[in-house]
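Bench notes, afternoon.
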Amino acid sequence: MKENFIYARTEKGAAEIAQRSQAIPARARSLLMMIDGKATGAQLLDKLAAFPNSAEFLQLLEDGGYIAPVGGPAAAGAPAPAAAAAPAARPAAGADAGGSGIGAAKRFMTRSLHEIFGPDADSLTGKVDKAQTVAELREVALKHRDLIASMASRSKSDAYWRGIEELLPEG
C-alpha cells in the first residue's frame, strides 16, 4: 500500500459490497466498506489500526483489485481530505502523542466495539471518528456503554467505561 496515495474502491470492490459474494474474508469486507476515496494509505492504516491484521487485509484488497490508489501522491500538491485533516487541525483537550488522550481513546473505543459487536460495530465507530472534542467523545462513549450493557453484558460495559476513564480526562 502506498502511504501517500488516496485509496478508493474499484468497481470490483463496489460489486463485492453490493453482492456479498463471499470472495474475501469477512474482516477484509468490513475494511472494504470503510474505504471512502478520501483517505491516504497512511491515514487508512492509522484509522484501521484497531482491526487485527488490518495492514495485511488492506494489502489483500489492493492485490485483489478491490481498492486502488486514485490520482497521484496526496503530498504532491493535492489538498488533504477535509475529513481526515479536521482532527489534526483541531486537537482536543487531552490529546497527545503518547498513550492517552482523544486519539488513544478513539482507538480503544473502535477496538473494543469491534471485539464486542464484530462487523456490526461499523455503524457505531463512525460516530467515534466524527467526535472532535473530549466532551463529544465522552457523550458517544456513554451511549456505547449503555448499549454494551443492554446487548452484551454489564461486565463488558464496565470494562469499556474504565478504559474510557483512563484515557479521557473529565471534560
